Description:
The complex is a heterodimer. Chain A has strands at about 5, 10-15, 20-25, 30-40, 40-50, 55, 65-70, 75-80, 85-95, 105, 110-115.
Amino acid sequence: xxxxxxxxxxxxxxxxxxxxxxxxxxxxxxxxxxxxxxxxxxxxxxxxxxxxxxxxxxxxxxxxxxxxxxxxxxxxxxxxxxxxxxxxxxxxxxxxxxxxxxxxxxxxxxxxxxx
Amino acid sequence: xxxxxxxxxxxxxxxxxxxxxxxxxxxxxxxxxxxxxxxxxxxxxxxxxxxxxxxxxxxxxxxxxxxxxxxxxxxxxxxxxxxxxxxxxxxxxxxxxxxxxxxxxxxxxxx
Lengths: 115, 111
């Protein structure tokens, strides 16, 4: 039981390059989330998916796209990377129903640098 | 719009002393979560508080929830170096489970 996994762990991009961050969970959770974390800014929600086939914008969606490929996988795409997207990206998932509803489980993170 | 405020944002603790972190939120919610993040690491769940008056304890940490006051506290008893980390509270923001996080409290414990 791996929980939430993310790839890659580290990435350096040049301005204008594109890339996709991958996230998968094996807990049969319905909801999945992408956050970015910048120093002094806490966690900011980029996009989330309440269930397979649905996605919604969070607080800071500009410059990103997402795909909920199936129940397990939720990817985040940067079409044209900018230095302002240098950050640590976390994927999370949560279930519904029961005592631990909505508790989010986090992946290990991806450290992205855009030069 | 749900707002979650933590204070203090930075807390320098002396080993052996007691401290409290406060988490205020702006709308009614009966679920609140505390997470811990070590430097360079991911977030780890500490406590899930599910109702008014809920109290959870794990070692030197105790969390409580007062939904009427819209306030949760994280109390640290006899701080030790291992508790140095950033602590986040989070409140459920919608029926799908979206959480709104506080800004985090960076805790540094020194001898």
